[in-house]
Write a structure and sequence with these properties.
The complex is a heterodimer. By secondary structure, chain A is mostly helical. In chain A, about 80% of the residues lie in helices and about 0% in strands. Chain A is elongated and about 55 Å long. Classes of the chains: A mainly alpha, B alpha/beta.
């Protein structure tokens, strides 16, 4: 067992699960989407990205790319959230919530790709 | 070799500080979000993520923006205190780590290599790879850049690379600090690059030069290799494969010195034709015939002795360690720096003296002592290091032989025009009066600048005007290649000195009425301006036509049509 691999897989899977937890629920209903969960998803996603830095294999490069996509989607979602809450006069509307959640939905797809790649690599190594 | 991406290497090294930064920020932000505060009306208020992120961001980096949006409660202040220390420490850790990584020798080397490779990739011209940047190497690089030839330097000594970086060359010369005998250094320096036209191995280690020659022949066959070899063994070894040329610095140097003594005309011809741009033109010298004294019988002294004796001159050898150097029996033992030894060698009635030891200070001392005893001596000094230029020039010496400079000149001539090397070989076989005649001819063409030599190959790309004319079967005589395109009655300030025909047939100083053949390679020597003119007339069919016929033919279709029409009319009238 390799501790590095454990931590690596842990963060990748955790990024997906947190992200999914935030994403699930009625898309336009703010009650279904917890802001703490989005925060945790962003933090874990960032850590997962940093862990992937410097892997020069092909699969490592693709993993890094999917992770960067997830970061981008989640950070944009957070910025939209901050904007509608504090800057725009209308406040949180179902429309804005739908935008935030759909952005995180995109991140879910990217994270799923990451996990699929991780599983593929694991199956290929068989150790 | 794998091309490292510097950013990725840096990020991988920075794993831990980056993760620490993210974690500390996350904990601090979360703390501010969870700890309840009081707003201006005294009601419980929770900071949201946006404000928490804002506060933590400026707190860690500036400290002192104040408590926003409302004054903090005691619990919040306690958390803020913790956060300040945590974030400041994690920032210091991160930045300190970054600076350490950036200064690590391995990383610095990686950055230098990356920037070097980037420079190599940007080079679009063909270039020479110079391995070894000593006296000879630096002189050669200077000469090459003066004539717009790109060079790349690989040198093992970091000091010499710094010297290269500080020198002001006309063209930028990238330098790599690496062991040139390792194939990967040569690959990094661009040996596999299609623009690489030659490799010059000038390190002071014969084995390294041999390895460079082998690597080059294997990795990029067809590229020219010029290698320096000090022993006969290494010389034979290197010249046995590929298209490599070998230069033995001692033999070359001694050959030049002997030539300077016994045939000054041929020597001057060599000096002129191999001179580097912007150098001063060497003045002719006339060393006297008679008895010579040779101080120093090392590798160099032996080579000189062999040459001078072959010329039938009377030589007395002065050598400090005759047993070690296998000197002949009649040698005078001593360094030559003291008057006694020189008097023993018969300096009073000698015609000239050669100070040829491998110690510059001793050489100067020998000449100064000898000059006091016999002021009429012709003095020849061997200068080993370029750093001693100033003192050698200050001393009143008739002929200074600089080793680095002579080898560099020879290399430069080889690299510029391969024909020139052949010409010099042939010229050495001619006698002194032949050389003197040629010198006065060349001297008349050039003012006081060194003559330029250049090659014109009669083929479709280099001389289309001449080549097309030959294709039609019309004869072209040699003199038409160096007539003045502005007035065909005048000759340009240059002369053809050698022609190479198909089948390696060489014609030395060809007659001006010689018929040119396709694939001839002609070596010209003369003034810089003449070169531009000859290039113009062999490229431009109009100009060449004017030279041949004295008429200017129309070039456009319309004019051609009109003149043809007029000619027909003329012919019809004449027929009537």
């Amino acid at each position: 067992m390799n501790l590095e691999k454990v931590i690596f897989a842990f963060f990748i899977v955790l990024a997906l699960t947190l992200n999914f937890g935030f994403f699930i629920g009625d898309i336009a209903n703010p009650v279904h989407h917890n802001v703490y969960e989005l925060f945790a998803a962003i933090v874990v996603s960032l850590i997962a990205t940093i862990l992937k830095f410097g892997d020069r294999t092909h699969i490592g490069a693709v993993l890094l790319a999917t992770s960067l996509v997830a970061d981008l989607q989640l950070i944009v979602a957070a910025i939209v959230w901050a904007f509608v809450e504090h800057v725009s006069d209308a406040g949180m509307t179902p429309h804005a919530m739908a935008a935030i959640v759909s952005l995180s939905g995109g991140a879910v797809l990217a994270n799923i790709t990451s996990v699929i790649l991780l599983v593929t690599e694991t199956v290929m190594v068989r150790r | 070799m794998v091309r490292h991406n510097i950013i990725f290497v840096l990020l991988r090294r920075l794993h831990s500080p980056l993760i620490a930064l993210v974690c500390v920020y996350a904990v601090c932000i979360l703390g501010f979000v969870l700890i309840p505060g009081l707003d201006d009306k005294g009601q419980v208020w929770h900071m949201d993520f946006f404000h928490a992120f804002y506060f933590v961001s400026f707190m860690g980096t500036t400290i002192g923006f104040g408590e926003i949006p409302y004054a903090f409660t005691e619990a919040q202040r306690m958390w803020a205190t913790f956060s300040i220390y945590a974030t400041v420490i994690v920032w210091l850790y991160g930045i300190g780590f970054l600076l350490t990584v950036l200064q690590e020798p391995g990383f610095v080397q990686l950055m230098e290599q990356t920037s070097f490779q980037r420079k190599i990739r940007r080079i679009r011209d063909s270039f020479y790879l110079i391995c070894g940047y000593g006296d000879t190497g630096s002189k050669l690089v200077k000469a090459l850049t003066e004539s717009d030839i790109t060079a790349i330097v690989v040198e093992i000594d970091p000091e010499r690379i710094h010297v290269l970086e500080l020198e002001d060359h006309r063209i930028f010369v990238p330098g790599l600090c690496a062991d040139a005998s390792l194939p990967e250094s040569l690959v990094m320096a661009g040996i596999k690059n299609k623009n690489c036209i030659g490799v010059v191995a000038l390190t002071n280690d014969d084995a390294a030069n041999l390895r460079i020659a082998i690597t080059t022949t294997l990795l990029n066959p067809g590229v020219r290799v010029i290698a320096r070899a000090e022993t006969r063994d290494a010389e034979n070894n290197i010249s046995s494969f590929g298209n490599s040329q070998v230069i033995n610095p001692y033999v070359t140097f001694a050959g030049r010195l002997a030539m300077a003594i016994h045939s000054p005309g041929t020597f001057l011809l060599h000096e002129w034709l191999t001179s580097v741009p912007h150098e001063q033109l060497t003045e002719p010298l006339f060393p006297p015939h008679g008895k010579w004294v040779l101080c120093g019988y090392g590798r160099f002294g032996k080579a000189v002795h062999e040459r001078i004796v072959a010329e039938g001159l009377d030589v007395t050898i002065v050598e400090a360690k005759p047993e070690k150097t296998n000197a002949p029996g009649n040698v005078i033992v001593g360094r030559g720096t003291e008057a006694v030894t020189l008097e023993q060698a018969g300096i009073e009635n000698a015609a000239g003296i050669v100070a040829g030891t491998d110690d510059d200070a001793n050489n100067l001392s020998i000449l100064m002592t000898a000059g006091e005893i016999n002021p009429d001596l012709f003095m020849v000094a061997r200068q080993n290091f370029r750093s001693n230029d100033a003192i050698f020039e200050a001393a009143d010496i008739d002929l200074i032989m600089r080793r680095g400079s002579i080898i560099a000149h020879k290399l430069y001539a080889l690299m510029r025009t391969p024909l020139l090397a052949k010409f010099l070989d042939l010229a050495r076989e001619e006698d002194e009066s032949w050389a003197n005649q040629l010198i006065s001819r060349i001297g008349g063409l050039i003012a006081d600048k060194p003559p330029l030599t250049w090659e014109i190959d009669i083929n479709m790309t280099q001389a289309p005007a001449v080549f097309e004319r030959l294709e039609t079967g019309e004869p072209v005589q040699l003199f038409s290649l160096y007539k003045d395109p502005q007035n065909r009655d005048n000759y340009l300030d240059c002369i053809p000195i050698l022609i190479r025909r198909k089948g390696n047939q060489y014609l030395l100083l060809p007659d001006e009425h010689l018929q040119i053949e396709a694939a001839d390679e002609i070596l010209f020597c003369g003034h810089q301006k003449a070169r531009i003119m000859t290039d113009w007339l062999v490229l431009n069919p109009q100009v060449f036509n004017y030279i041949l016929s004295g008429e200017e033919h129309p070039s456009g279709y319309l004019w051609k049509l009109l003149t043809r029409h007029a000619q027909k009319k003329n012919q019809q009238q004449q027929a009537k």
